[in-house]
Amino acid sequence: MSLREGDPAEIGGYPLEARIGSGGMGTVFLARTSSGRPVAIKLIHQHFAGDDEFRIRFRQEVAAARRVSGAFTAAVVDAAPEAEQPWMATAYIEGHTLTQHIATKGPLSGVELRRLAIGLAEALRDIHRVGVVHRDLKPSNVVLSPEGPRVIDFGISRAVDQQTLTMTGRVIGTPPFMSPEQLQAPRGVGPRSDVFSLGTLLVYSATGHGPFDADSPYMTAYQVVHEEPSLGAVPAALRAVVESCLDKEPEGRPSADELLVLLRDLPADLGGTDANEVGAGRTRDMITQHHFAARATPAPTAPATAPAGPDTGSTGTSAGRRLRSRWRPVLAAAVAVAAIGGGAAVLQAGGIGGNSSSGKGDSVAAPGAALPDGFEPWRRTVQGGREDIPDELRCVARGDALFCGGGGVVATRIRVQDGSRVWTAKSPGVPVQGMHLVGATDDTVLGYRFAAQDAPQDPPSEVVAMDADNGRELWSVPSGAQSTAVTGRTRDALVIGSAVVTVDASNSRFEARDAHSGEVRWTTSFPAGTQCAPVAVGPQVLAMCATDAAVDGSEVRNSTLYTVDRASGALGRPIAVNGPAVPVGVANGRLVLLQEHMEGTASVGYDGVARVDPVSGKVTYSRLARTYEGTPGMADGTVYVSGQTGLVTALDATTGRKKWSRQTAVEGASGPEAGAGAVYFSSATGRVVALSPHDGKPLWTTNPQADGSTGEQGASPRVTVAGRVVIVAAAKNTLCAFDAQKPPKAG
To answer: Which regions are flagged for Polar residues bias (predicted)?
Structure first.
């Protein structure tokens, strides 16, 4: 379709060649990069540009599309969600949509239908593995490319760990392909809503009509919620699988991983619609074996102090491990696939990262701590190398200096007193979500740098050391990015004393260097057939490892810990940890991990505590009274889980016993950070709540400081405490500081 009068000649420096199509939200154009690569640019209609609610949705669409860019979706090339007229450029996928194909050539059958079903299930699996729910899977959002089906348009998608944007008075989606829960309670929509939509899509592909079609959208919606689907024309072998996808209750449906197993077991030619065909019965048997049978027999509850077995992380389907990637943009590297953020967890006396929560570190204040001379509350924005992808920063405080990094900022030094910037080092590339500042020593600051898309010769990600006084780069080293699958933490390096331990670019060994000079002190290869991440227990370094097969399959069910000699790097004896577990802190010299409760490969919360004594190698386990959902953390020997809706629960790190629970007004809060007689939790909006560590009593709450998404899970603590000063990091690289004894009033 040629360009029309009034269409722009170029968008964001990309010359336009043709219109691809236009819809209610925007117009899609065909354009070219400077190298001649075709791209599809979605330009939002001008009348939506001033709609704040819509801009938030579009930012979420860009973030989700970046996060899932891979083999089954259109990779994001560029975007400007904050432009006067927002736009996003993705790789151009040649081919007709499923809608166009059915309209011109009719329904699919046989091998072609089976190939489509498997391709879409693979796409859904990859989308869900990075924590995104598409929420608008329909024929017009599926492109039939020569390489297989591609899923596009993440306009109303959301991260699993992020609350649905409130859309007052609106039901967003396409009723014939929406799930019952999406029509009834859209805020509760999860990954299995997409499975329902995929079931309707397969019926449409096989028959040319949906399973709930009616004369009006209202009747269609009613039938989706209350009536049984019409499946008479669906091939019998496929029908049994589709029936399971269209269960009215989400828990009755298979996960995307389970669905893929069922579809791959189908015969190459799906055959006809005779319900008595062998294929149909065999598929139903497979469903029973792989999906429903596991739900029929609950797993026995382990004694409170007994070691958990390999399946204690799940009471339904087999235990697995979801690679965590939150709603932030994800490094696409050179092949435009969704990357896994580096995952070294830094645990210092209960804190995570260089920002200690022990009550004794530089960033934790005693109740009587003083303010810096002349301190006044301040607010600053730190611009990074990619202004189109503003991220959240994370900070550590040392004396009167605040060091922060994240997103497009490798590191910056800011004066605690007034927020003035001393120096900033920028990162030119697309940041990996969750990878912020590595840490700081007395004279060195270490952060992450990501390569620009037009510099493929540069390492995709590096650890960079800078002089703490002036920001001068001292050295850099390529770093790996696979450890999140092992630890559940998105870090790739840690500072121990005057040294920094990193994972090499090939994800095969640890490398220890002098933090200031970069001189290599030792290197240690991972045990054969494993991927590892460094974890700190006070001054001690541990290697947390899982098998290559488990990491590659996104199913880390068990892990192994090794002590690491700080002088030589030599690994000690192996310490086995049962069940998928996330390290959260240190208590009495023991590493504390929360054990995950899994549904398929998705974590649905935490139901146990494991404690590892690195000296004796002993591991003890305690069951929690229930499964707690949210973001885990630890401070002063107490484990905290901050829920998506603002519920904070404090748990005893030794027994797993609940100390208290408190409902707060801070949704999607990360934390804790301890200091000045309180524990602090904060969301991406910069809203902070201070709670009493003894009983959870709210001491004060602030208003939001930035326009950010709430409901996120898994984020590292956003609050830093320097004496009496509380510094909070919020969305769009926003930093705010105030006196803990005179917090901003919430109005």
So the answer is: 700-713
